[in-house]
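thread: overnight batch results

M.L. [08:02]
morning all. the overnight job finished for the chain we discussed friday. pasting input first so we're all looking at the same thing
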Amino acid sequence: MRIVITAGGTGGHIYPAIAIIEKIKKLEPKSEILYIGTTDRMEKDIVPKLGISYVGIEMKGMNRKNLIKNISVYLTFRKAIQKAKETISSFQPDIVVGVGGYISAPVIIAAHKLKCKTLIHEQNSTPGVSNRYIAKYVDCVCVSLPDTISKFGKAKTVYTGNPRSEQILDAKPIQKSQLGLDESRKLVVVCMGSLGSATMTEKLRELIPAFKNKPYQVVVVTGKTYYDQYKDVSVPKNVVMVPYLDNLIELLKRTDLFVGRAGASTIAELTAIGLPSVLVPSPYVTENHQMKNAQELEKIKATQIIEEKDFSKDTLIPAIDRILSDTGLYRSMKLSTKSLGVVDSATKVYQEIKKVIGE
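M.L. [08:03]
and the structure it wrote out:
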């Protein structure tokens, strides 16, 4: 099987794409895979390191604040379609799979123009701009949440879950000692997205010293961009700060409570392993979809939501203390979170790919 996979921008798109690739390689080792991403986003560094063939195409996202700037976006978009057509024609895939991010739009459109089989995967409860636009061109739409089927229509939409969930199930837990942590103490991981957050950096700078003398340990993932902004923060002995973790899912399997954003991949990871959480949805995403993601868990009392505007040491610390100290509450949150998990989502996406190809 020859496959082109495209996804980009953030870990929420990239890691599910990688999970699909890993599943295909496991089930069909002789498959040839080409990843098309951008020339300037994080996938250009992550994907080639995994030994996956990579082609970068220049692409920009729409500017919602300055419509005049979208003239250059449109011109870049047209060039991206042409570059994608050349790349796809040369590779001759059996199918082109889009997993989100604005790079997926020109690639899927190019595939459609070339009459290639196509499939897209939507991670969020509210479809992204690119996937909404290209859905009419594809043969199959896979979604992470059942309610999202109505956003695309039932005719060609399939509920598969998020492929990242199967990836975390297969991951081998790391030893806490690898990060200088005590194996016997409870662990809280704080991560505000794969890229970090400017607004949350200011709040976390104030929060970190407040963990002093707590009975649990804390790992704070700052994001590479913001790591230097923590240099003057007083870091307690029970807190470890890192800019980024390639093996975050391996650490999550040793984690007792997660604090962070409510991106689709994060939700998939938490529900796959039944990890209780305090979620802080990003208010800067399209149609507030992270809040809707988090509310799926809140409805069954699997998480506590703290809005970014309310996030502080005075709201977070009591929430952590309450969840970790109340055995009954913790067990209930764990079971509720686990109840939403899809444990074979990458396999289901693979099966849909085979159906579209006609095998």
